Predict the 3D structure of the following.
Amino acid sequence: MNLDTLRATVAGPVLLPGDPGYADELATYNLTVVHTPAVVVGARTAADVQAAVRYAAGANLPVAILGAGHGSSVSDEGAVLITTRRLTGLVIDKEARTARVEAGVRWAEFIEEANKAGLAGLNGSSPTVTVVSYTLGGGLGPFGRKYGYAADHVTALDVVTADGELRHVTAASEPDLFWALRGGKGNFGVVIAIEFTLFPIPAFYGGGIFFPGELAADVLHLFQEWTQDLPEEMSASVGLLHLPPLPFVPEPLRDRLVAHLRITYLGSPSEGAVLVQPFRELGTPIIDAVGILPYAAIASVHNDPVEPLPLYEHGALLRELPKEAVDTVLKFAGPGSASPLVLAEIRHMGGALSRAPEVPNAVGNRDETLYNVFLVAAGGPPAAAALHGYEQELIDALAPWSTGRRYLNFMFAGDAAPGAAALAFAPESYERLTGIKRRFDPANLFRINHNIAPAA
Ligand SMILES: Cc1cc2nc3c(=O)[nH]c(=O)nc-3n(C[C@H](O)[C@H](O)[C@H](O)COP(=O)(O)OP(=O)(O)OC[C@H]3O[C@@H](n4cnc5c(N)ncnc54)[C@H](O)[C@@H]3O)c2cc1C
């Protein structure tokens, strides 16, 4: 297929550098990632995706995929980039408690629709990531300790593989591909839609409490003790925030250190209130927004920024969180530190996140992980090396308690060296993934990602 045939076949736009609309089509969330593909195809249908993949294979070009642009990793210079934002199908079956969600749908849209049906999905902290990309990388969210990863509840996927075929993949139809796609992210094809099970959560007890920086050490130390013995109904994290003085940041939180406790409790609100009481006794918060919230308000628990930003992220998985580990985080990101981080977050894992799902999938590093550390710095390209360096120093200092492994969705552009993706999986799972990759993508067409290269 040549470019003219591609243009004639595809319903959405096909754009080259310099074409009107090319730059707009590449709009992304993380402004540190600059997209420079040879061709960009704005897919309207699965057939558009099939044509783009066949064109790329024929031209011997790699295929890159752009959803909402929070997690782009390696450069797509010279690639065929498929944008998914026009794939907006979203069907919620209230009776069956299932959803079918196409690749361009973001969690914000899903949450609103699901809440109308009194149902919930396993979204993460950010409402602006796509449901599909997030879920393919695992999907770690505020109901995680109770229900596990989002990928654990996927029942079917429609995917265009490297041969250009559109496959409906289930545990019965393609067991290997079904296992690999749920956790292997964008390595096995362009996912057009996923189907998954929903939960009857019209409302929950939770939200965030923002404490002034002076209380940061107390909040983190209490979090450390408190998470040693928590019911699985409680998912929680704590973030040290230093937000810029920008209009979208609420005035009392601007340009100051803040300790942010985030909780979701899926038991009774009165039990939840008892559990959170020790934090309320620490001192006067800046904002206490914990209460009974509808699922529609789930994004307010973390309050992630929705505006595009220039971000540099890093992460680590911890097997334990002793007091010394908390002191280390405080030393780098607490009061009096010279931290350039906008967020140093510790998420409590365990519970269902530690267990294998009913239908096994590729999501790795479950049983040994009890805490997930996520760091975010913001700045322009000149600051990149210094910001990455600071994050790396903190990650290195956490080494005594770290598993040395990674969570794939918390791997970003700075973690995309060849072979790095192996850290996200158990060694035997990674080997199985490379074998499945050889079967479905022997030429490694899908390599503009945290790449799983085909087995030799
Ligand atoms: C502020 C912030 C908060 C976050 N919070 C969480 C969280 O709470 N929990 C969590 O698990 N993750 C979280 N993440 C990580 C996020 O879920 C991933 O980066 C996710 O991939 C972003 O989705 P996106 O649509 O923006 O992906 P994009 O950046 O558009 O794509 C990233 C990669 O996903 C793959 N991909 C995208 N679409 C498809 C598709 N249709 N088919 C196949 N592959 C595809 C491709 O490999 C692509 O390169 C967060 C990220 C940020 C920046």
User: Anything to note?
Assistant: The mean pLDDT is 97.
